[in-house]
Input
Amino acid sequence: MVKPVHLGILASGSGSNAEAIIKSCENGRLKGKTVVSVLISDNPDAYCLERAIMHNIPAIICSRSGINSREEHDRNIVTELKKWDVELVVLAGYMRLISSYFLQEFPHRVINIHPALLPSFRGMHGYKDAVEYGVKITGITVHFVDDQMDHGPIILQKSLEVVFEDTEETLKERGLKLEHEAFPEAIELYCEDRLEIIGRKVKIKPN
Ligand code: GAR
Output
């Protein structure tokens, strides 16, 4: 039996993606392939911490208060991740940039979900930006993290139609459903060792 991949989830907010991944490990496509070893939040008030606790996942706060630099904060997080024997780091609504120190510690082993079809609408408000711009199609992206914001090699994307009446809220509601499918799908590809990074591109190897 192959050893399951140990995931560490970083989240800053509600944690619906974190919970979708946790549920997938419990009873979905990730069952037997992955375990969530720890969830870490930089926000002491974030609901993601409660979601983790409800599923008996260790929930840790790595607060930024009193910390002077991004790297110092990331050192604390990396120490925790290593303590929990994490192999793959999953950014599930983690609203901070990752330092190059962090990336060196987890080379090609940090993935992020973004609420738009990259390279469109980078940043913190993918759904709002898509509605305001008036695009007819938007979507979601799962990608490897590199040293630029919302930039690394793309693992998968799913598209979403935008209708005239959409608001940020209605689009986000539909988009999150796609995110909750796509993130476990991408993690499964990683666990099956089917992702090969070639320059900017990710080749998905057949099963
Ligand atoms: C998700 O829509 C995710 O794509 C987005 O934050 C939300 C977190 O929701 N991430 C970014 O915007 C990163 N640039 P959740 O806390 O319910 O998973």
Summary: Residues 11, 13-17, 92-93, 113-115, 124, 126, 150, 176, 179 surround glycinamide ribonucleotide (CB under 6 Å).
